[in-house]
Design brief:
Layout (H helix, E strand, L loop, with lengths): L2 H10 L23 H10 L1 H8 L5 E10 L5 E9 L2 E12 L5 E6 L17 H12 L3 E12 L4 E12 L5 E9 L5 E6 L2 E3 L14 E3 L2 E3 L1 E2 L5 E5 L9 E2 L1 E2 L12 H23 L12 E6 L6 E3 L3 E5 L11 H15 L7 H22 L9 E2 L13 E2 L22 H4 L1 H12 L2 E5 L2 E5 L12 H14 L7 H16 L4 H11 L11
Parallel strand pairs: 3-5, 13-16, 16-18
Antiparallel strand pairs: 1-2, 2-3, 3-4, 5-6, 6-7, 7-8, 9-17, 10-11, 11-15, 12-13, 13-14, 17-18, 19-20, 21-22
Helix pairs in contact: 5-6, 6-7, 7-9, 7-10, 9-10, 9-12, 10-11, 11-12
Length: 526
Amino acid sequence: MTSVGAVAVLAAAGLAIAPAGASVRSAPLPASGFDQPAAVQSEQTLSAKTAAALGLGKGEVLQVKDVVKDADGTEFVRYERTYNGLKVAGGDMIVKRTGDGAISGVTYNRNATGVGVKSTKPTLSQSAALAKGAKAAGFKATGNQGTLVVYVTPAKPVLAYEVVTTGVKADQTPSVLHSFIDANTGALLASDDEVKTGTGKSMYAGTVTIGTSGSAPNFVMKDTSRGGNYTTDLNGGSSGAGTTFTDADNIWGTGAASNRQTAGVDAHYGSQLTWDYYKNVHGRNGIFNNGQGARSRVHYGNAYVNAFWDGTQMTYGDGSGNTHPLTAIDVAGHEMSHGVTEATANLNYSGDAGGLNEATSDIFGTMVEFYANNASDVGDYLIGEKININGNGTPLRYMDKPSKDGRSKDCWTTSTGGLDPHYSSGPLNHWFYLASEGTGAKTINGVNYNSTSCNGTTFAGVGRDVAAKVWYRTLSTKLSSGSTYKDARNGAINSAKELYGAGSAQCKGIQAAFSGISVPAGSAVC
């Protein structure tokens, strides 16, 4: 075998390879033995000094949300803010500290260096704001609460009501909708749903090993080795925790939808793989990076053709006719990654940020599928290709050419943010494919692809492992709730420089792929 052939085989196997001309560099790694909860507490004791050092305005108070630490001591501290006791929605920021504790950089969401407003006294009544929030929801509300906040718009901070409307949509999907109503004019500034929905494959993982606990005859579908991840049966219900699966002999399911345990096995296996992927590849200790597991609920509703993350847990429907549970590998990866996004950048589910949020879940759901290396459900760049949700054998989404679904966009434009997040995700999905595999025809795991760039350029990919590591670092250390595609480009290029070096082939490949989806050049260059 020639050396070129060897590289091609390794690339097809999904192994990390430095492209020709890549610089040799020790990439920043998570600090060994890093205790994230302790680091958060430690940084919180310094929050007042940090606010003073940054010159924040009177009345602004910092609250530490997350800390990421590299092996060289560099820290990225993510903060949220209050102003005169009011929550600041969109006031999140990231402070970069060197190993000696000095501040070496700060990233403000929407450039909100200051979040003060002229007055914290509204002219709009709370009841009027609640009515507007309920109307914006478009479903029968079972709960409707509002509180005053400072909302950071792209132009300036605004006093607003954050109205949280809960209920169930017509398709059975629950909703926890946050509507931001201008507390003086009554205008709807923005809305964001806590429940992030997605679809995927069902029951294609075959015979697998899952983490359980207990002993005969009372084995429990709870994985104590992965933070206590556990899986429950809603039995057609739409609320509550459900009943944790138990078994007498620790042999679960039959592979058929008629056996209630089968969907539980797939969901539990998927959460296990996702935990392992984030832990072993990115050094992340669970969704919230604190070692705590999460719950997966199966058999939700009646013939519910979807799955969702609601801020604390994964929930899966049984699909059309209650015969196709949406409980496969990339579904679990997709839904749990919504949780990772929430715990890091907390990208809004609207505008450009909504597309970045949804694409992030597609990216890491895809990576979990490749990571699993499961012969019954091989890795690919197709989303939902086996559930036949369209009725004609086509997948739900295509990462190599998103527009093939008839709704998603291949290329970024100034109007992309106005689309549903499942379609504005198209450009970033396209970026990930181009960054991973490059342009041109190729066959990967039996699937044919032929992706083209939006600007007509041709280039090689840097490998999916490199692209995923760059995007994870971007998500966890560069982006904030209102980030745009332009922010994503700058953040990814800077992350690639930190990981692989300025001028590296990896950085240039990441940069070329963003140009390839028509995101214009910004301040960051390789």
